């Protein structure tokens, strides 16, 4: 029987596979292209899902986000505050996220490694810990991690859809 940590690791590995599939072989221009004038770009979708994962996992682990701790903010050199995750961005903000596939993939892979490293430390009893009291009911660690997987897979799917349109 699989452990909870093994199941969560498998889920995040599926996200990693989807992210790589959405990015592989795309040019910077394809990553920044929009399938409609206000659509999210592949670059923004992947940057955003990675920022959310980095932010949320760092929060529950009680650590600094890799974005600032390992200098990804400087590598991306985006015109936003370092705590920006893409939530609430305008269409102009989305268009400002320009990055290569290798930079996006490298940042995602670093966040992924950090995530599965953290998950490996968890025991089932840890998953009931309340990590966010701003919701009713309060959010447990289990709910937070599953919500990150769900959000990441939706955005990776959107990136794959945009990729399909842009490359056919």
Describe the structure.
β1 (130-132) and β2 form a beta hairpin. The protein has helices at 4-23, 28-32, 42-61, 66-69, 72-76, 91-96, 101-119, 141-166; strands at 130-132, 139-140. The termini are far apart. It has a single domain, classed as dinb family like domain (Four Helix Bundle (Hemerythrin (Met), subunit A)), CATH 1.20.120.450. α1 packs antiparallel against α7 and α3 (42-61) packs parallel to α7 (101-119). A two-stranded antiparallel ribbon has the order 1-2. The mean pLDDT is 97. The chain is 62% helix and 3% strand. It is mainly α.
Notable characteristics:
168 residues, 8 helices, globular, two-stranded antiparallel ribbon, Four Helix Bundle (Hemerythrin (Met), subunit A), 2 strands, mainly alpha
Q: Just name the CATH architecture.
A: Up-down Bundle
Indicate the proportion of strand residues: under 5%
Report mean pLDDT, rounded to a whole number: 97
Secondary structure: helix percent: 55-70%
Report the end-to-end length measured between terminal Cα atoms: 42 Å
Number of strands: 2
Kindly report the spatial arrangement of strands forming the biggest sheet. Answer: 1-2
The chain-level structural class is: mainly alpha
* Cα gyration radius (Å): 16 Å
Poorly predicted runs? none
The H/E string reads HHHHHHHEEH
* Shape descriptor: globular
CATH-wise, what's the superfamily? Answer: dinb family like domain
Task: Work out the count of structural domains.
Answer: 1
The helix tally amounts to 8
Question: Class, according to the CATH hierarchy?
Answer: Mainly Alpha
Largest sheet: 2 strands, antiparallel
Q: Quote the CATH topology.
A: Four Helix Bundle (Hemerythrin (Met), subunit A)
């Amino acid at each position: 029987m699989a452990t909870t940590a093994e199941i969560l690791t498998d889920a995040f590995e599926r996200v990693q596979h989807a992210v790589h599939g959405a990015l592989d072989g795309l040019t910077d221009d394809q990553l920044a292209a929009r399938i409609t004038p206000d659509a999210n770009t592949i670059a923004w979708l992947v940057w955003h899902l990675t920022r959310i994962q980095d932010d949320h996992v760092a929060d529950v682990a009680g650590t600094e986000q890799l974005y600032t701790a390992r200098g990804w903010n400087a590598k991306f050199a985006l015109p936003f505050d370092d705590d920006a995750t893409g939530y609430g961005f305008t269409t102009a903000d989305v268009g400002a996220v320009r990055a290569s596939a290798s930079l996006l993939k490298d940042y995602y892979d670093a966040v992924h490694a950090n995530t599965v490293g953290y998950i490996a430390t968890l025991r089932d009893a840890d998953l009931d810990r309340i990590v966010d009291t701003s919701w009713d009911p309060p959010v447990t660690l289990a709910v937070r991690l599953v919500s990150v997987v769900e959000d990441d897979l939706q955005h990776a799917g959107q990136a794959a859809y945009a990729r399909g349109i842009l490359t056919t």
